[in-house]
Each structure stands twice: as C-alpha cells, then as structure tokens.
Amino acid sequence: MRRLFWLAMGITIGALVVRKLSRAADKLTPGGIAGSIADGLRDVAEAIGDFGADIRAAAAEREAELRAGTGLDAPLPAGDQIRLPGRHGAHSADH
Length: 95
Prior knowledge:
With 95 residues, this protein is an all-alpha fold. It has a domain at 33-70. The protein has helices spanning 2-27, 30-70, 91-94. The longest helix has 41 residues, at 30-70.
C-alpha cells in the first residue's frame, strides 16, 4: 500500500513538473516571446493613453482657472456700454 501511495505521488509530481516545464518552454519559443512582447506593448500603449487623458484633463482644468481669473469668459458689454478712446458719444459723429 505504501509503495502504491509513493508511486501515485511520484506520478503526480512528475506530471506537474512536466506541465511547468512545457509552459516555460512555450514562453521561450518565438511565438511565446512575440506574445509576451505584444502584451507588454499593449500595456505600454494603455499607460500612454491614460497619461494623455490625465494631461488633457489637467490642461482643461487649468484653462478654466485661467479664464476665470482673467475674465475671458465674462459676457461682452452691450453696444452702448463700449467706450473707445478719443470718442465721446454723439460728438464723434460730427467730426
């Protein structure tokens, strides 16, 4: 009975080792390496896309702060409220 147990244990361990070695060997084939490189490039592209989105969001937020601080988004004055230098109301029409 003990021999049968150890035989089964040896077969199980052997199968697990062969399975692990097969996976490692598959990763070292040109197809496995290409798959690893493709996964890595996909991760890099995703990280670059996330970085770009963060930059765009920060730039939009900063632009809104600058516009609010400088008054660029304030409504334009009505036509009768505009005073140009050198012109004073109806007198400029006589010149």
